[in-house]
Design brief:
The structure holds two protein chains of two kinds.
Chain A lengths: L6 E16 L2 E17 L3 E6 L5 H9 L6 E6 L2 E2 L5 H8 L2 E4 L3 H4 L6 H12 L4 H14 L16 H13 L5 E5 L7 H18 L2 E5 L3 H7 L2 E6 L2 E7 H7 L10 H4 L3 H7 L1
Parallel strand pairs in A: 3-8, 3-9, 6-7, 7-8
Antiparallel strand pairs in A: 1-2, 1-4, 4-5, 9-10
Helix pairs in contact in A: 4-5, 4-6, 5-6, 8-9
Chain B lengths: L1 H8 L6 H5 L5 H10 L6 H13 L5 E2 L4 E2 H36 L4 H15 L2 H15 L17 H39 L2 H8 L4 H26 L6 H6 L5 H10 L3 H29 L1 H4 L5
Antiparallel strand pairs in B: 1-2
Helix pairs in contact in B: 5-6, 5-8, 5-10, 6-8, 7-8, 8-10, 10-13, 12-13
Classes of the chains: A alpha/beta, B mainly alpha.
Chain lengths: 272, 304
């Protein structure tokens, strides 16, 4: 048997059920993740596609620690997070950062751009004020935001600029893995391409691994190395992006609800 | 203006009791009416009072036969001491409890706070006051009413301060217990809304510690309604304690206003109402200034 490649991030047998309501009334159980196995190789991009409500965001939440899985294991650079004590697990979690879909809402409206980007460095506790400023300014410039705008509030930036700011904040801690949850939604095509190009440059320069959650199959096929298809809380297929593009039907290249697209991309992938 | 009009429209005046006294002649009563301007038409009286109030003369109290402004101010100081201290304690207690209660939603601390606030909300302030007076009389742990004891009149300043502090225990406790549930619930509600915002979730995902998340991110986000509430609390410092002052015999604006209303001492009533209204307007202004200072979004324009 060949030795397994080194993975930046792995999910092994993840299960997560959300329970809503009180114990005496209206207790609803929704199984968001069911035995999810996912492996993200070093310095690659894995796209995660699926219908709305299939569990993509729930998986992202579990991977960054915003939700605790009921069962399963998350392995980061070969080390299981479940075996670490709390301080070590918190430190390890910083290696995985998440960029949310709606960056405008994900940025604190009361903080300036510089405060938003440098805050993760404040928490490290090992940088002086000047060092934090320099690192944050360098990262802002790297993502295409001028440090001269560091005093501005998020409301003073455009949608694309807010997305860049969110990426800068995520990258300032120099993580190994970046999870992007629908970051291209709401941006026009040219801005999407700019963000995609930026991410590819950063991947080359910083050796990052990406898990990209998206509905946009066209962009994903250009941007990702591999594509995983998710359905009803399970990974039903994983293949290279070229194979996936060849199997996907139509020029719309957008995953939608089955009633609109019929047994096309997802049904074919699931059966493959 | 409305206060002036409604008070004047009420039947009778301060000198009605004098008319019942056979030793005072009707001519003397009529002379007093002319002296205090009560024989003039209502609009003339109002504008005359308005003109003198604008120059700092708020009229003369019929009951005390003294200028109204210094009389009100001497009582207002006592009220402000009581309510200012109560408000400070209220906020100091409610803020951390409300913040942590919102962060520990649906856990025991939250349920405990909800139960306590519900109990205090349904308990009238009068009942709280009477309960504390009963405790004071039974246990003698603290004085049952008043501001100073007789024996402290000739004591040194330290002894007088100590005596004042003991006399403050009961009324401050009533005001704090009465104001705490409303404040606690407002803080909890504002914090709950703030904790559910996307940027708080994003901050959690970046590994920001829980305490920093609560106080550095969520509390500033929740501060807008709380600053307005603080301004309103500031503005209502003179009016919240009226009933408690009367029950606990605290020499503040409450007893003064009650006596003035019962005695138809119109200028004292008008002066007290106006002073309270000015204080309320000042409190709202302070709230607006604080809001401008604490929320950077108000100071910047959205470029879209």
């Amino acid at each position: 048997m060949d030795s397994a490649p080194t993975f930046a991030l792995e999910a092994r047998g993840l299960c997560k059920t959300f329970v809503r309501g009180r114990w005496w009334h209206n207790r609803l159980r929704h199984c968001a993740l069911e035995n999810v196995n996912l492996a993200l190789q070093q310095r690659t991009t894995l796209a995660l596609v699926g219908k709305s409500g299939c569990g993509k965001t729930a998986l992202a939440m579990c991977l960054v620690g915003l939700e605790q899985p009921d069962r399963g294991e998350i392995v980061l650079n070969g080390q299981s997070l479940q075996t670490l004590n709390r301080p070590s697990a918190i430190a390890a979690r910083k290696e995985v950062q998440l960029v949310f879909q709606d960056s405008g809402s994900a940025l604190n409206p009361r903080m300036s751009a510089m405060q938003i980007v440098e805050e993760p460095l404040v928490l490290c506790g090992k940088y002086s004020r000047k060092q934090r400023w320099d690192l944050a300014a360098a990262m802002m410039e790297r993502v295409g935001i001028s440090p001269k705008w560091s005093h501005r509030q998020p409301s003073e930036f455009s949608g694309g600029q807010k997305q860049r700011l969110a990426i800068a904040r995520a990258l300032v801690l120099q993580p190994k893995v970046l999870i992007m949850d629908e970051i291209f939604v709401g941006l026009d095509r040219s801005i999407q391409n700019q963000i995609a190009n930026l991410l590819m440059e950063l991947q080359q320069s910083h050796g990052l691994s990406y898990l990209c959650i998206s509905h946009n199959l066209g962009l994903v096929s250009q941007f990702a190395d591999r594509v995983a298809v998710m359905d009803k809380g399970r990974i039903v297929d994983e293949t290279s992006s070229s194979d996936f593009s060849a199997r996907a039907q139509g020029d719309s290249a957008t995953v939608s609800t089955p009633c609109q697209q019929g047994p096309s991309a997802l049904g074919t992938s699931a059966g493959a | 203006m409305l206060s002036f009009v409604f008070l004047q429209l009420a039947p009778g005046d301060f000198f009605d009791e004098m008319r019942l006294n056979p030793q005072i002649s009707p001519e003397a009563v009529a002379r007093l009416h002319r002296e205090y301007g009560l024989d003039k038409p209502l609009p003339v009286r109002y504008f005359s009072w308005l003109k003198s109030a604008a120059s700092g003369d708020w009229g003369t109290s019929f009951a005390y036969n003294a200028p109204v402004a210094p009389l009100i101010w001497s009582r207002a100081r006592n009220t402000l001491l009581l309510t200012g201290l109560s408000m400070l304690l209220c906020w100091m207690i409610a803020l951390p409890i409300g913040v942590f209660s919102a962060g520990e939603r649906h856990r025991w601390i939250d349920h405990g706070c909800s139960f306590l606030t519900s109990f205090l909300l349904v308990t009238p302030d009068l009942l709280l006051a009477l309960g504390l007076l009963w405790i004071a009389l039974r246990t003698h742990w603290f004085p049952a009413g008043g501001m100073f004891s007789l024996k402290s009149a000739h004591a040194g300043s330290v002894a007088q301060c100590r005596d004042l502090a003991f006399h403050l225990i009961a009324p401050v406790a009533v005001l704090v217990l009465g104001g705490l549930p409303v404040l606690l619930r407002h803080i909890r509600a504002a914090m709950t809304d703030a904790l559910q915002t996307p940027y708080i979730r994003a901050a959690r995902s970046h590994g920001i510690p829980y305490s920093r998340l609560l106080f550095r991110h969520a509390l500033p986000a929740a501060s807008a309604p709380l600053v307005s509430l603080f301004g309103y609390s500031l503005g209502s410092l003179l009016s919240t304690s009226l009933l408690i002052e009367v029950v606990m015999n605290w020499p503040g604006l409450g007893p003064l206003l009650l006596e003035a209303i019962l005695a138809r001492d119109v200028y004292t009533v008008i002066g007290t109402v106006m002073f309270s209204a000015l204080f309320l307007a000042g409190g709202m202004f302070v709230a607006d200034v604080l809001l401008f200072a604490t929320d950077p979004r108000i100071r910047t324009k959205d470029i879209g």
